[in-house]
TrEMBL record:
Keywords, comma-separated and alphabetical: Aminotransferase, Pyridoxal phosphate, Transferase
Spans traversing the lipid bilayer: none
Domain of life: Bacteria
Lineage: Bacteria, Pseudomonadati, Pseudomonadota, Betaproteobacteria, Burkholderiales
SUPFAM superfamilies, A to Z: PLP-dependent transferases (SSF53383)
Residues bearing PTM N6-(pyridoxal phosphate)lysine: 186
Protein name, per record: Aminotransferase
Gene Ontology BP, a term: polysaccharide biosynthetic process
Length: 369
C-alpha cells in the first residue's frame, strides 16, 4: 500500500456533488466577481473564526500584504517576522517596501519565540507577523502582551492554521487581524488560489474591501491607490462547501498526528513535534526532525511513502534576500530546523491504517540511518 503525501483529488472527490452544484449555481448566476457567493462565504468564515469581519482576497500573500498596507506600513518601517517560516510571510513585508526583521523560533515548537521579540524592536518597528506554522498556534498571549507594551500591531499569518486554537480561542481572532490562504493544499483549500482576512476592526475591514478592489467603494470612484486582489465568486462557492468539511478534516489530521506521536515516541535521533499545553494544532503538517532526513525521505519513497521538506532553505538564506546581508549562521535555530525537518503524509485523504503503515516504516528505517 503506497501513501501519497497529499491527495487533493481524493479530498475534493469526497464532496464532488456539492462542488458540482456550487459550480452550476455560479455559472447560472451570470455574476462572477464580488457578489453573493463571496459575501456569504465571508460571513460563514467570520463566524467560524469567531470574528466580526472576513474579507475575501486573491491569495494568502496578498492577505498579509494588504493588512500591512492598510496599517500604513511602508518604506523605512520594520516588521518582525519569524526566521522559520514560508517565504510569503517575508515577501508581504518587502512588497510594502518595509524590512522584515527575523526573530528565531522556540526550537521545540517551531514558532516565533516571544522571549526574543523585544530585543528586535527598534523605533522603526510597526508590527509583528506571528505565523502559526505547520498548523500549530504561536504563543499569541505572550506576543499580544509585548505588542501592547510597545504599541505594535499584530497580524496572524494563519495560512496553515484554519481552526487551530490557542487557550481555546480560534486562529483568526488572536491578533489585530489574521491572514489566511485558501491555496488548494491548505486545511481549507479552494480549487485554485484564494485568500482571506479576519478582524474585529470595522474600519480596517472597510479599508481592506476598498484596497482589494482598485481602491474604490463606488465603481470608478477611487479613494486610494488600491489593488486587484479579489476572491472569485466561484472559489467562494467552493470554499463554502469545503468549510463544511473543515472540522471533520482537522479531526482526521489530529487522529493521524496522535497515531504518529504514539507510535514514533522514543526513537533515538528522531524528534517529534511538541505541543504546548495551551495549543490545539490542526496539523497542516506533521513535521519530524532527523540529522539524516534526506536519506530517511529516500528510504520512505522506496516504500511508496511521500514526504516533503517544509522548508529546505530559510528565508534569510534565499538568494532573494541576499540584499539583507544575513549570512550563514545569522539565525542558527532556523538553519538547523531547515536542515533536519521532514513532513510525513497527513490529511483527510489518509486512513489510520495508512498512518500505521507510515509509522511502521519510519520505525524500521530510522535505526538503520
Ligand atoms: C501558503 C502560505 C502563505 C501564502 O499563501 P498563498 O495563498 O500561497 O499566497 C503565507 N504564509 C504561509 C505560512 C503559508 O503557508
Amino acid at each position: 500500500m503506497s501513501v501519497p503525501f497529499l491527495d487533493l483529488k481524493a479530498i475534493n472527490d469526497s464532496q464532488s456533488a456539492e462542488l458540482d452544484a456550487a459550480f452550476r449555481r455560479v455559472l447560472a448566476s451570470g455574476w462572477y466577481i464580488l457578489g453573493k457567493e463571496v459575501e456569504a462565504f465571508e460571513q460563514q468564515f467570520a463566524a467560524y473564526c469567531g470574528c466580526a469581519h472576513a474579507i475575501g482576497v486573491a491569495n494568502g500573500l496578498d492577505a498579509i500584504m494588504l493588512v500591512l498596507r492598510a496599517w500604513g506600513i511602508g518604506p523605512g518601517d520594520e516588521v518582525i517576522v519569524p526566521s522559520n517560516t514560508f517565504i510569503a510571510t517575508w515577501l508581504a513585508v518587502s512588497q510594502c517596501g518595509a524590512t522584515p526583521i527575523p526573530v528565531e523560533p522556540v526550537e521545540a515548537h517551531y514558532n516565533i519565540d516571544p522571549a526574543r521579540i523585544e530585543a528586535a524592536i527598534t523605533p522603526r518597528t510597526k508590527a509583528i507577523v506571528a505565523v502559526h506554522l505547520y498548523g500549530q498556534p504561536a504563543d499569541m498571549q505572550a506576543i499580544m502582551a509585548i505588542a501592547a507594551r510597545h504599541g505594535l500591531k499584530v497580524l496572524e499569518d494563519a495560512a496553515q492554521a484554519h481552526g487551530a486554537t490557542c487557550h481555546g480561542r480560534r486562529a483568526g481572532q488572536l491578533g489585530h487581524a489574521a491572514a489566511f490562504s485558501f491555496y488548494p493544499g491548505k486545511n481549507l483549500g479552494a480549487l485554485g488560489d484564494g485568500g482571506g482576512i479576519t478582524t474585529d476592526d470595522a474600519e480596517l475591514a472597510q479599508l481592506l474591501r476598498t484596497y482589494r478592489n482598485y481602491g474604490s467603494q463606488k465603481k470608478y470612484h477611487n479613494l486610494v491607490q488600491g489593488f486587484n486582489s479579489r476572491l472569485d465568486e466561484l472559489q467562494a462557492a467552493f470554499l463554502a462547501v469545503k468549510l463544511g468539511a473543515l472540522d471533520e478534516g482537522n479531526a482526521r489530521r489530529r487522529a493521524i498526528a496522535a497515531r504518529y506521536s504514539e507510535q514514533l515516541a522514543g526513537i533515538d535521533g528522531l524528534t517529534l513535534p511538541a505541543v504546548p499545553s495551551w495549543a490545539e494544532p490542526v496539523w497542516h503538517l506533521y513535521v519530524v526532525r532527523h540529522a539524516r532526513r534526506d536519506v530517511l525521505a529516500e528510504r520512505l519513497a522506496e516504500h511508496g511513502i511521500g514526504t516533503i521538506v517544509h522548508y529546505p532553505i530559510a528565508p534569510h538564506q534565499q538568494q532573494a534576500y541576499a540584499e539583507l546581508g544575513h549570512g550563514a549562521g545569522a539565525f542558527p535555530i532556523a538553519e538547523a530546523i531547515h536542515r533536519e525537518v521532514l513532513s510525513l503524509p497527513i490529511g483527510p485523504h489518509m486512513s489510520l491504517d495508512q498512518a500505521d503503515e507510515v509509522a511502521a516504516a519510519v520505525r524500521a528505517i530510522v535505526p538503520t540511518l
